[in-house]
Backbone:
């Protein structure tokens, strides 16, 4: 199909995604058919620079594609974001003159699939700290630990991981690498049976001295906020803004569903539909105004990033705030819509029931509300996020 400026995907393809979403959720099954279609359409290489065989989409363009897919199949949009944010990060660095991840872009263009191995038990500062041990060995680094929320588990071929090297206790380092799936020491644990976003199949990955070759090491930086360089802030930009767009797209679909529902819903106490009830109108207005504010913020921040606007040290504040506003606002939208449904939205046969469950996952993604407030509060007050003790 011809690529347009509006979307890589046709309405027919997207409707097929929606038609399969309920079955994936019910059966706790990976979105394999969606994935195959997305790959065929070039969705997995849209962020690869055109010079390297991709479509050259920047963050703002990828974000719009993400939100559009999310209106039809949120779990599909969320799972593929884990691949796209690695590719987008590498592309930004490449355009800026840093060619250290050109290999990743070339591999993505040739069909490799990347996933995120950041979430860990016992670590509330993903990327910045790690409960996974990174140990220097001949020709690479050995990683030992457990990674959770590993979206794309059935199909990834490269797992982006990070671990902490404490060989010098006074100067711990975070090592970022990409493990090929056939690396000895990698074991998949099928743990994914959850409330929402079930089709992502985000199983656990256990690493037992899994060695990442030096050629697949992306960065080695100081632990904590001191290690936020262009690589790390790029992960935040691509991951967080697209998380936000997933839940914005989901909430937009819920708004459409509840609008149609109240237009056709009657009551013995009214001569016209519930759309004419003043409290229903009030609720719909709140939903629409919330969505307008979410969209404006996500779009503004993504466009600034894509255009290279220099916000300096304020970038972490902008990225974390936009994601937080999007996912918490989306939850408020979905919760309000469920109230307005009058209970019908609770039925398994209704799409809103699944979207309600999916929406709850947004606040778990990093940075969660606790970390978001900590980072934004400290940075606004001029407090170093690495200052110890954090809480006492």
Residues:
């Amino acid at each position: 199909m011809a690529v347009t400026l509006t979307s890589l995907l046709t309405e027919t393809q997207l409707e097929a995604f929606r038609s399969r979403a309920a079955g994936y959720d019910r059966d706790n099954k990976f979105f394999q058919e969606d994935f195959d279609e997305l790959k065929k359409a070039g969705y997995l290489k849209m962020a690869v620079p055109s010079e390297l065989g991709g479509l050259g989409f920047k963050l703002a363009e990828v974000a719009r594609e993400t939100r559009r897919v999310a209106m039809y199949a949120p779990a599909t949009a969320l799972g593929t974001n884990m691949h796209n944010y690695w590719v987008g990060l590498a592309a930004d660095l490449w355009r800026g003159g840093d060619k250290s991840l050109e290999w990743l872009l070339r591999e993505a263009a040739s069909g490799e699939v990347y996933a995120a191995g950041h979430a860990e038990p016992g670590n509330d500062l993903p990327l910045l700290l790690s409960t996974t041990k990174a140990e220097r060995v001949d020709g690479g680094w050995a990683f030992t630990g457990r990674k959770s929320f590993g979206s794309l588990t059935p199909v990834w071929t490269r797992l982006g991981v990070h671990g902490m090297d404490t060989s010098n206790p006074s100067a711990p380092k975070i090592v970022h690498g990409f493990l090929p799936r056939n690396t000895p020491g990698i074991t998949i644990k099928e743990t994914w049976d959850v409330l929402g976003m079930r089709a992502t199949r985000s199983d656990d990955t256990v690493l037992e001295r899994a060695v990442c070759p030096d050629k697949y090491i992306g960065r080695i930086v100081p632990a904590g906020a001191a290690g936020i360089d262009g690589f790390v802030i790029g992960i935040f930009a691509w991951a967080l803004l697209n998380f936000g767009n997933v839940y914005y797209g989901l909430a937009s679909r819920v708004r459409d569903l509840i609008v149609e529902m109240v237009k056709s819903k009657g009551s013995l106490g009214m001569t016209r539909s519930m759309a004419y009830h003043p409290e229903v109108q009030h609720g719909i207005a709140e939903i629409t105004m919330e969505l307008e504010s979410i969209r404006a913020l996500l779009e503004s921040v993504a466009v600034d990033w894509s255009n290279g606007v220099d916000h300096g040290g304020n970038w972490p504040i902008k990225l974390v705030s936009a994601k937080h506003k999007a996912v918490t606002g989306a939850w408020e939208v979905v919760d309000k819509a469920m109230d307005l449904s009058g209970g019908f939205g609770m039925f398994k046969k209704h799409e809103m029931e699944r979207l309600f469950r999916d929406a709850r996952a947004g606040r778990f993604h990093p940075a969660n509300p606790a970390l978001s407030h900590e980072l934004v509060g400290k940075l606004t007050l001029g407090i170093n996020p690495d200052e110890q003790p954090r809480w006492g």
User: Anything to note?
Assistant: Residues 1-5 have pLDDT under 50 and may be disordered. The chain has three domains: 11-109, 114-223, 230-381. Residues 335 and 368 are 19 Å apart (CA to CA).
